[in-house]
C-alpha cells in the first residue's frame, strides 16, 4: 500500500536531516583542521591585538557609523519630505538622488568624496567629516525611502485632526506625523544602522592615521604583520558584537509595534 | 456679533467627475443644534468637512462667525481654531497621552502656557467625565472614551462652533450613549453644533433643525419634530422608514 501523506512528509523530513548531517561530515572531513587552527586561532596574535582592537578600532567603527547614521537620517528625512512635496522639482531631485546613490557602490562615493571633491572644489575634509558625509550620503538614499513609507503609513485622519485644530501643514508634520512615522520605521531603521556599520569598513580607501583605524582597516594592518588570518576572525567577531544586538533590537521593536511581518519559512 | 453662526450659500463640491454637493444653502443660528441626516453617499460628511475647509469647495460661500472661509486670503489655520471637529474614527494622536492630546494644539497653535493649557485640558476632560484618564494612552481607552477625549480636545480650543462627523458610527452599541450624553450636555450649554448622524432619537430630541440630504441636495429641512416626525418629501419618508424600522422593508434598490 502507498504511504499516507503524513508518513511521506515525515520521511521527507528525516531525509533532509540526514542530508545535512552528511554534508557537515564531508566538510569536516575535507577541512585541514591543523591549518585552520594555525591560520585562525593564533593566540599570540589575538593577544597582541588587544586592547587596541577595542579601544581604537571598535570605538572608531562605532563613532564613524554614528556620525554617518545621524547625517544620513537628517538628510534622509529631508529627501523623504521632498519626495512627498507638492513642488514637482523637489520630487524630481529627491528621486534622482535616491536612484543615483542607491544604484552605485558605496565605495565609489567614498573615493569621490575623499579624492574627487577636494580636487573639484579645493576643499579638504577632515577624516570625520569625510566619513560622516560618505556614509550619510549613501545611507540617506536608503533611509529616505523608508522614512517616506513611514510618513505615508500614518493614518490620514491624524493630519486631518491636527489641521482641524488649527495646525499648519508643517506644524502637523513636525508635531504629529513625523513622531508617529518614526515609531513605525524604527525596525527598518535599525536594519539600516546594521548595514551602515558594515559599510563603514569602506573607509580603508582613505588614508588613515593609526589612531583613526576602524575595525576592517585595523584587521588588514594587523594581518600584514601577522603569520595568520587570526585578525580577520577577531574583527569579524567585533562586528558581530555590534550587529547582533542591533538585529535583536530590530526584531524586538518589530514585535512590540505589532509588526505584521511574520517570518516566512 | 451676529445671530448667525454658520452661513453656507451655493456650495458645490465635486471629486473628479463626481458631483457630491450640487448647490447647498445652510444657515445655523448661534446656539442651535443642526443635525444632518441622509443615506450614505448623499454628501452630508462632505458638507460638514467643507465647513472647516478640510474639503475645498468648488463653488459657493462659507461664512463662519463673520469670517468668510472661502475668501482666498483668509487665515484658515486661525479660523479653524474656532471650529472644533469630531471625527467618526476619533483620530486621537496615538503617540501622545490624553492630556498631551488636549494640550498640544493649545500650546503650539494658541501659544498658551503649559500650566494654563493643562488647566483648560483637565477642565474639559472633567466635562466629558474622563479626568482620571489624563495620563492614559489613547490605545488604552475604549472607543467611547476615545471619542469623549476627542470632544474634550476640540473643546479645549474654545471653539465657537462644533462639527460632529458621525461621532457614534464606529462605536459599539453600548458605548453610543456615553458620547451622545456628552453631546446633549454640550447642546444644553448652548454650544452651536452641526452634527452628521444616524442617531434619529438624538436628532429628534436635541436638534433645533434637521436637514435631510440626498444625492448632493438638501431635500427637506425644518424642526426635528416635522422632518423626522412628519416628513413631507417622499425620499425623506422612505429613508426614515428604513432607518427607524429596518426589519420591515425589502432591499433598498428593487432594480
Shape of chain B: globular
Helix and strand content put the structural class of chain B at: alpha/beta
- Order of strands across the main sheet of chain B: 6-7-8-3-9-10
What quaternary form is this? heterodimer
Average pLDDT number of chain B: 92
Please report the total strand number of chain B as a whole number. Answer: 10
What are the SSEs and their pairings?
The complex is a heterodimer of chains A (265) and B (255).
Chain A: H1 5-30, H2 33-40, H3 43-49, H4 52-83, H5 88-103, H6 106-121, H7 127-153, H8 156-164, H9 169-199, H10 215-224, H11 230-256
Helix pairs in contact in A: 4-5, 4-7, 4-9, 4-10, 4-11, 5-7, 6-7, 7-9, 8-9, 9-11, 10-11
Chain B: E1 4-15, E2 18-29, E3 33-37, H1 44-51, E4 59-64, E5 67-68, H2 76-80, E6 83-86, H3 98-108, H4 114-127, H5 143-155, E7 161-165, H6 173-188, E8 192-196, H7 200-206, E9 209-214, E10 217-222, H8 224-229, H9 234-244
Parallel strand pairs in B: 3-8, 3-9, 6-7, 7-8
Antiparallel strand pairs in B: 1-2, 1-4, 4-5, 9-10
Keywords (chain B): ATP-binding, Nucleotide-binding, Transport
InterPro entries (chain B): AAA+_ATPase, ABC_ATPase_HisP-typ, ABC_transporter-like_ATP-bd, ABC_transporter-like_CS, MetN_ABC_transporter-like, P-loop_NTPase
Pfam families (chain B): ABC_tran
Amino acid at each position: 500500500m502507498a504511504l499516507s501523506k503524513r508518513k511521506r512528509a515525515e520521511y521527507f523530513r528525516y531525509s533532509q536531516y540526514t542530508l545535512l548531517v552528511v554534508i557537515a561530515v564531508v566538510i569536516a572531513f575535507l577541512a585541514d583542521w591543523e591549518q585552520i587552527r594555525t591560520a585562525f586561532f593564533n593566540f599570540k596574535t589575538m593577544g597582541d591585538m588587544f586592547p587596541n582592537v577595542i579601544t581604537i578600532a571598535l570605538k572608531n567603527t562605532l563613532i564613524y557609523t554614528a556620525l554617518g547614521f545621524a547625517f544620513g537620517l537628517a538628510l534622509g528625512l529631508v529627501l523623504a519630505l521632498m519626495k512627498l512635496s507638492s513642488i514637482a522639482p523637489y520630487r524630481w531631485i529627491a528621486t534622482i538622488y535616491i536612484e543615483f546613490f542607491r544604484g552605485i557602490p558605496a565605495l565609489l562615493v567614498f573615493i569621490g568624496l575623499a579624492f574627487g571633491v577636494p580636487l573639484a572644489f579645493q576643499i579638504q575634509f577632515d577624516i570625520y567629516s569625510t566619513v560622516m558625509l560618505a556614509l550619510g550620503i549613501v545611507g540617506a538614499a536608503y533611509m529616505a525611502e523608508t522614512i517616506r513609507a513611514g510618513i505615508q503609513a500614518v493614518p490620514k485622519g491624524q493630519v486631518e485632526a491636527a489641521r482641524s485644530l488649527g495646525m499648519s501643514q508643517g506644524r502637523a508634520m513636525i508635531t504629529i506625523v513625523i513622531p508617529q512615522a518614526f515609531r513605525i520605521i524604527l525596525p527598518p531603521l535599525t536594519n539600516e544602522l546594521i548595514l551602515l556599520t558594515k559599510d563603514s569598513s569602506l573607509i580603508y580607501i582613505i588614508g588613515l592615521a593609526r589612531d583613526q583605524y576602524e575595525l576592517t582597516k585595523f584587521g588588514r594592518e594587523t594581518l600584514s604583520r601577522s603569520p595568520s588570518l587570526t585578525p580577520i576572525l577577531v574583527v569579524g567577531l567585533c562586528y558581530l558584537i555590534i550587529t547582533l544586538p542591533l538585529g535583536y533590537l530590530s526584531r524586538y521593536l518589530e514585535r512590540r509595534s505589532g509588526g505584521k511581518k511574520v517570518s516566512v519559512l | 456679533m451676529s445671530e448667525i453662526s454658520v452661513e453656507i450659500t451655493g456650495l458645490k463640491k465635486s471629486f473628479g467627475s463626481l458631483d457630491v454637493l450640487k448647490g447647498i444653502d445652510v444657515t445655523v443660528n448661534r446656539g442651535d443644534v443642526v443635525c444632518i441626516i441622509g443615506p450614505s453617499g448623499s454628501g452630508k460628511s462632505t458638507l460638514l468637512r467643507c465647513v472647516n475647509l478640510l474639503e475645498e469647495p468648488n463653488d459657493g460661500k462659507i461664512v463662519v462667525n463673520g469670517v468668510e472661509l472661502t475668501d482666498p486670503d483668509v487665515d484658515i489655520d486661525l479660523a479653524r481654531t474656532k471650529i472644533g471637529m469630531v471625527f467618526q474614527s476619533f483620530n486621537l494622536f496615538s503617540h501622545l497621552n490624553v492630556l498631551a492630546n488636549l494640550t498640544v494644539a493649545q500650546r503650539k497653535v494658541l501659544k498658551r502656557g503649559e500650566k494654563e493649557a493643562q488647566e483648560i485640558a483637565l477642565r474639559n476632560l472633567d466635562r466629558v467625565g474622563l479626568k482620571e484618564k489624563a495620563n492614559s494612552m489613547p490605545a488604552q481607552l475604549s472607543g467611547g472614551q476615545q471619542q469623549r477625549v476627542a470632544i474634550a480636545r476640540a473643546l479645549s480650543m474654545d471653539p465657537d462652533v462644533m462639527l460632529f462627523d458621525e461621532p457614534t458610527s464606529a462605536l459599539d452599541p453600548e458605548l453610543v450613549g456615553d458620547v451622545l450624553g456628552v453631546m446633549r450636555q454640550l447642546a444644553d450649554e448652548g454650544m452651536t453644533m452641526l452634527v452628521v448622524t444616524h442617531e434619529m432619537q438624538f436628532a429628534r430630541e436635541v436638534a433645533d433643525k434637521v436637514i435631510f440630504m440626498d444625492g448632493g441636495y438638501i431635500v427637506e429641512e425644518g424642526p426635528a419634530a416635522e422632518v423626522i416626525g412628519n416628513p413631507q418629501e417622499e425620499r425623506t419618508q422612505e429613508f426614515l422608514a428604513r432607518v427607524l424600522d429596518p426589519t420591515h422593508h425589502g432591499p433598498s434598490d428593487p432594480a
